[in-house]
Specification:
By secondary structure, the chain is α/β, with parallel strands linked by helices. A hairpin with a 2-residue loop joins strand 6 and strand 7. The protein is globular and about 55 Å long.
């Protein structure tokens, strides 16, 4: 085997024992999960807003952003459920580049996975303790999920992972809502198959154990746009796309039909300022169709303290993304209030 084994890392149980959460925080996280389940099951008509940086990079800066979200959440709590994005693992199209805090807790230093595991757990713990927010993360590596499983309230399975059997089966065993993105090809049947798999029980191999999952009734769709054979980004958030998805869901027999619309990625062509227009268009579609309004449970928005993005290195501006460009705070705050007014 052409790889070096540096060190054996602590298993999730050991990390949780070393960095435990209190019963009070566990109850707070549980309450946030129930609130989300009520939305995805149609028992609440609030809008879920999964919002935050493309990638979490610096602990204090991420927490500054989330503390600002807390103030906004308190003002829109009757209409919107905010779930901050703390994405600590980043898929890279070519395999190169910053892979997130799990790999590099300091973006300017070499990878250190032990420090990374501890850093991401501490970050999610601080977010819950200091702001009351249970947060979202992407399940890029299914075997790593248990390092954060007692802290997260929402999980996304990415466009490159949604066809993978291990991701689908692991999603079927999670106790939080899981969003399954459409693949980069845009094939909706792949996404629907992944939701079906995630909603069903399975027996499978996980972290060296034979496990039995119960099925996740809150697995749902995320539309993020797609790329055609010429490499061009194409959207799938328009009225016709949402109407077609509602019809597909109706014929599927799946539990709790739901979609979260990702306003960035291929839907915006990574033109991050377009997220404002896209979010408003989705809300407009909801007003024109009761079927769409019942289906659309939320939006996913990439946002940080500063507009745009930057390279890692000299001239670093705290709160500006070091991966995909994000909407800055002033535009974000204004958008959240406008969305609340539209509901």
């Amino acid at each position: 085997m052409n790889m070096q084994f540096f060190r054996k890392l602590p298993i999730p149980q050991e990390i949780k024992k070393q960095f435990p959460i209190s019963a009070e925080l566990a109850a707070l996280r549980e309450a946030r999960v129930r609130e989300l389940e009520n939305v995805f099951a149609g028992r609440s008509d609030k809008l879920v807003l999964v919002i935050g940086p493309c990638s979490a990079d610096q602990e204090d800066t991420v927490l500054e952003y989330i503390s600002r979200l807390r103030t906004v959440q308190d003002k829109v709590a009757d209409k919107i459920v905010i779930v901050p994005r703390i994405y600590t693992n980043k898929p890279r199209t070519t395999g190169d580049g910053y892979k997130g805090m799990l790999h590099q807790p300091d973006p300017n230093s070499p990878p250190d996975l032990l420090r990374g595991i501890i850093s991401i757990r501490k970050l999610h713990m601080r977010a819950l303790a200091e702001t009351g927010f249970g947060c979202a993360d992407e399940m890029l590596y299914p075997e790593n999920h248990r390092y954060l499983s007692d802290l997260l309230v929402y999980v996304a399975v990415g466009a490159r992972s949604v066809e993978d059997q291990q991701h689908r089966m692991t999603a079927s065993g999670l106790d939080v809502p899981v969003g399954m993105k459409n693949p980069t090809s845009g094939d909706i049947s792949v996404m629907m198959n992944s939701i079906t798999a995630a909603q069903h029980p399975h027996v499978f191999l996980y972290r060296g154990w034979e496990v039995q999952s119960q099925g996740n009734p809150y697995a749902h769709a995320i539309l993020r746009g797609y790329v055609n054979k010429h490499g061009q980004s194409l959207p799938n958030y328009h009225y016709e796309d949402l109407k077609a998805l509602a019809e597909t869901y109706a014929a599927s027999g799946l539990e709790n039909p739901a979609v979260v619309v990702d306003t960035n990625h291929a839907n915006s062509g990574k033109q991050y300022l377009e997220q404002v227009r896209i979010a408003k268009e989705v809300m407009h579609s909801c007003r024109h169709s009761a079927d769409i309004r019942r289906l659309v449970k939320g939006l996913m928005i990439e946002s940080y303290l500063e507009d745009g993005c930057q390279k890692i290195g000299e001239g670093y501006v705290p709160g500006r993304s070091i991966t995909d460009p994000c909407l800055g705070w002033e535009k974000t705050e204004r958008l959240i209030y406008e969305l609340a007014d539209a509901l």
